[in-house]
Design a protein that fits this description.
Radius of gyration of chain A: 24 Å
CATH class of the largest domain in chain B: Mainly Alpha
Structural class of chain B: mainly alpha
Strand content of chain A: 25-35%
CATH architecture of the largest domain in chain B: Orthogonal Bundle
CATH superfamily of the largest domain in chain A: P-loop containing nucleotide triphosphate hydrolases
Low-confidence stretches of chain B: none
Strand content of chain B: under 5%
Distance between the termini of chain B: 38 Å
Number of helices of chain B: 13
Distance between the termini of chain A: 33 Å
Oligomer: heterodimer
CATH architecture of the largest domain in chain A: 3-Layer(aba) Sandwich
Low-confidence stretches of chain A: 357-365
Radius of gyration of chain B: 25 Å
Helix content of chain A: 10-25%
Shape of chain B: flat
CATH class of the largest domain in chain A: Alpha Beta
Shape of chain A: elongated
Largest sheet of chain B: 2 strands, antiparallel
């Protein structure tokens, strides 16, 4: 068990800066997801924790020990790769035993540890097979087995589920949550899939363009996104963001005016961006008129694409079974407690003051 | 459905006929240049033939009896095996070593990669002339250099005495053919996923353990093919040895290929030469069967 700290870490490749001013403190036993789009620096961060890349500046420590100059094999970490990286010529048993063999663990102890890991991951019948004879999910479990067999302080997982099909992925997700609960070890999990991050992690580090955007619980990241990037990246479909002007108690865009409770915002009059999640856009009543452009039926709900009078597009999530037809003009309302305001820049910060006012119950999906 | 069932076999027959027609030229050429000489050699080996006239009498298996009871064939077979094993092991060691080196991120990598092919591209005649000059016991650069370095105090007769002649031939053979190993191994090295090395590093494997546990197992399949192919080619090597030593001193570097040539064109015994070459072919058949077994499954 260990806490992992990155202090003011920077990483550049030649003139390209992949990461800047990265400060993350991961508590002992925590499951942390590094989440972000491709090229955001999340994998580089993980590889630096593993010792496969070296920070250009800053300090990385694991369990209180600075590991900047410590070789990967000596950091007491284990890593699961996206491609699993199983040794193709070794059997499942030999693969799992390999990290122990390289550490000079005696043969009988090794066999016992392999047996234990195999039991935990239900790999016993496969121990004599070669990786090529296994399915993707089985290979994934072998990679996990190889990681957990020597009981490292920290587990690093690099998009471990992204090569699996959807059904297996949700199964393995549950398995991993269960595994983390049972082992109680620190886990750092890289993913670009927000669903994985939201469902599995204790805390999510949202990254973008080599910078940490927000590091908080799934609930906070969803309900109190730190800025416009986090607001748009988390949530499917993503949050509606409408550029407009704040003046007094109203937010205006074109012909649309939305009354606001100014006490909830630390914003000054002037241009700003209003953010509303699709589930907070209700169709039926209200004083904003919109035209239905598209209705997508997902089975348990409808995703409705709306156009305001000036052409601005919005998304709304409504319960399945509503009769809505394309071209129909409807009145919509934004739930007042669920309105966010952001500074108008591309990465504009959130301007709400009341931390909890915007929390609305997340729907199960 | 009925149309399909009556038509498909006809179409298939037409395809089969077309297929046979298309491979026919290959079969004809193959028969002319491989099957006919093979059968002709076996036929010749049953006669005692004077090469210039190509005339002679049927002697049955007498040539084979001479082969089995005489010293020449067995001596040459031994020489051939020493040469093949010697030069091949050097080729593999040098080739894998050089491939590993060229796989590293060194600054002169692309230049070195083209330079390393040089011996393989060079005509054997040119290469051998240069090496003979280097090996020359009177004015050779090799003796000069080694004496300057103090390794030798007397010039060495490199190609005219044993075991130097065999060592020289093996060295030149290794120099000439190791680029083939480099190219094949390098190509395979480039396909080994980096993740395997990274996983091994995290699992605590040092550079040597990574070579044995990741690199070598991944090279196994390509090495099997290289070793078998090069073994076959080295086994029947002719020009390099013939030009370098001519089989000498006496017969100490006379491989089977040289023996066959000597018998056919120096001693003018075409029948006996044919018998030797059939014997040589049977030995090579063993290599070939191993090769087919190792590669046939894939």
């Amino acid at each position: 068990m260990a806490d992992v700290t990155l202090k003011n870490v920077r990483k550049s490749f030649g003139t390209f800066t992949a990461l800047e001013n990265l400060d993350i403190e991961i508590r002992s036993g925590e499951f942390v997801a590094l989440l972000g789009p491709s090229g955001c620096g999340k994998s580089t961060t993980l590889r630096m924790l593993a010792g496969l890349e070296f920070p250009s500046a800053g300090e990385i420590s694991i369990d209180g020990r600075v590991v900047n100059d410590v070789a990967p094999g000596k950091r007491d970490i284990a890593m699961v790769f996206q491609s699993y990286a199983l040794y193709p010529h070794m059997t499942v048993g030999q693969n799992i035993a390999y990290p122990l063999r390289k550490r000079g663990v005696p043969k009988d102890e090794r066999a016992a540890a392999v047996q234990k890991a195999a039991e935990l991951l239900q790999l016993e019948p496969l121990l004599d097979r070669k990786p090529a004879q296994l399915s993707g999910g089985q290979q994934q479990r072998v990679a996990l087995g190889r990681a957990l067999v020597r009981e490292p302080k920290v587990f690093l997982l690099d998009e471990p589920l992204s090569n699996l099909d959807a059904k297996l992925r949700s199964y393995m997700r549950a398995e991993l949550i269960e595994l983390h609960r049972r082992l109680g070890k620190t886990m750092v999990y890289v993913t670009h899939d927000q669903l994985e991050a939201m469902t599995m992690a204790d805390r999510i580090a949202v990254m973008h363009g080599g910078r940490l955007q927000q590091f908080d619980t799934p609930d906070a990241v969803y309900n109190r996104p730190a800025n416009r990037f986090v607001a748009s990246f988390i949530g499917t479909p993503s949050m509606n963001q409408i550029e407009g002007t704040l003046a007094g108690d109203t937010f205006t865009r074109g012909a649309m005016t939305v009354p606001l409770d100014r006490a909830r915002f630390a914003a000054e009059d002037g241009p700003c961006v209003m953010g509303v999640r699709p589930e907070a856009v209700t169709i039926g009543t209200g004083h904003v008129a919109a035209t239905i452009r598209l209705v997508e039926n997902t089975g348990h709900e409808l995703i409705v694409s709306l156009a305001l009078e000036d052409g601005t597009r919005l998304l709304s999530r409504v319960e399945a079974g509503r009769r809505l037809s394309i071209g129909q003009t409807v009145q919509i309302t934004f739930e007042p407690d669920a309105i966010h305001l952001f500074a108008p820049e591309d990465d504009g910060a959130r301007l709400n003051t009341d931390e909890d006012a915007s929390v609305i119950p997340m729907r199960s999906h | 459905m009925t149309v399909a069932t009556t038509n498909t076999p006809l179409l298939e027959r037409q395809y089969a006929r077309l297929g046979a027609l298309l491979i026919a030229p290959t079969i004809v050429v193959f028969s002319l240049v491989i099957v006919y000489p093979l059968l002709a050699a076996i036929y010749l080996s049953l006669f005692s033939i004077y090469t210039p006239t190509l005339e002679g009498d049927f002697v049955g298996f007498a040539n084979y009896w001479d082969l089995l009871s005489g010293r020449e064939f067995w001596n040459s077979l031994r020489v051939t095996l020493v040469w093949t094993v010697g030069t091949l092991s050097l080729q593999i060691v040098l080739g894998v070593g050089m491939a590993l080196l060229l796989h590293q991120n060194i600054w002169f990598r692309s230049l070195a990669r083209s330079l390393v092919l040089f011996p393989y591209f060079l005509s054997t005649v040119v290469a051998v002339l240069v090496w003979r000059w280097l090996f020359n016991d009177l004015y050779g650069a090799m003796n000069h250099g080694l004496m300057q370095l103090g390794i030798l105090d007397m010039p060495l007769d490199w190609l005219g005495s044993m075991p130097n002649a065999m060592i020289g031939v093996i060295l030149v053979g290794a120099w000439k053919y190791f680029p083939f190993v480099v190219i094949a191994v390098l190509a395979r090295l480039q396909t080994i996923p980096d993740h395997l090395y990274e996983a091994a590093r995290i699992d605590g494997a040092g550079p040597i353990a990574r070579f044995w546990d990741v690199t070598l197992p991944q090279l196994r399949s390509v090495l099997v093919v290289i070793i078998l192919l090069r073994a076959i080619w080295d086994f029947k090597e002719f020009d390099l040895i013939y030009l370098l030593t001519g089989g000498g001193p006496v017969t100490s570097t006379q491989t089977l290929s040289l023996l066959v040539y000597q018998e056919a064109f120096a001693l003018n015994q075409m029948g006996q030469a044919a018998a030797y070459s059939v014997g040589m072919m049977l030995v090579m058949l063993v290599f070939m069967l191993v090769y087919l077994r190792k590669t046939g499954g894939r």
